[in-house]
Design a protein that fits this description.
Layout (H helix, E strand, L loop, with lengths): L2 H6 L3 H15 L4 H21 L3 H26 L4 H27 L5 H28 L21 H6 L3 H36 L1
């Protein structure tokens, strides 16, 4: 595989994280510290989004940073040779916390406007669904290997990069449509991932029964 094709298989935000991780690695910053820092950043983003008014624009920008940091800690871990099972699960828990905070915060903020109580409902549904999706995918990874949950990269983006969209749609004043789409689409995607997990579970039971 040539260098061009190798680069094409890495998402844009991952490439930026690789670049940003180098100085952190030289400073011997532990990857779990980076993960830990991402949590208050994500929670702050959720709080700002929940305030409504102009603060949602700041919250949206900070949320994008929190999403990106989900890649940064992993790159620091690889560069410093400090990858660990705990770090992997800590990263998963931090990302889940940040994503839920973002969706619920946005829902609360929108609840103060035209969406009313539906804003909070949709935000909670989207956030809970994303958390469930991540948990189910973790089960698939543990049961069937990392390759089974590896996301394809298309034009420099992965499926999970849709989370970044929260920022520009907020700045352009159409966040409510994004939350409506997430509140409907995330549960549907959860069903698809759950179906995949069911297949993994059945294959595992079949394998166990054949031994």
């Amino acid at each position: 595989m040539n260098s061009d094709s190798s680069a094409a298989s890495v998402a844009i935000d991952q490439r930026i994280a690789k670049w940003a991780a180098r100085p952190l690695a030289r400073l011997s910053i532990h990857p779990n510290v980076v993960t830990g820092i991402s949590i208050p950043i994500g929670l702050s983003a959720g709080w700002l989004l929940a305030q409504g008014d102009w603060l949602i624009h700041v919250g949206a920008a900070i949320f994008a940073v929190a999403v990106w940091m989900d890649h940064l800690d992993g790159e620091v871990a690889r560069l410093t040779g400090q990858t660990s099972t705990f770090g992997h699960y800590f990263d998963h828990a931090a990302a889940m916390t940040n994503y839920v905070a973002g969706f619920v915060g946005a829902g609360i903020g929108l609840g103060k406007g035209t969406l009313g109580e539906w804003g909070l409902i949709l935000g909670i549904v989207a956030g809970a669904s994303v958390a469930a999706i991540m948990t189910v995918r973790m089960y698939i990874e543990i049961s069937d290997g990392h390759a089974s949950v590896r996301q394809g990269v298309h034009c420099g983006f992965e499926i999970e990069d849709t989370l970044y969209v929260l920022a520009p749609v907020t700045w352009f004043g159409v966040l409510k449509y994004f939350i409506i789409a997430a509140g409907v689409g995330a549960p549907i995607f959860l069903l698809c991932v759950s179906w995949q997990a069911l297949g993994v579970y059945r294959r595992s039971r079949s394998t166990d029964a054949g031994q």
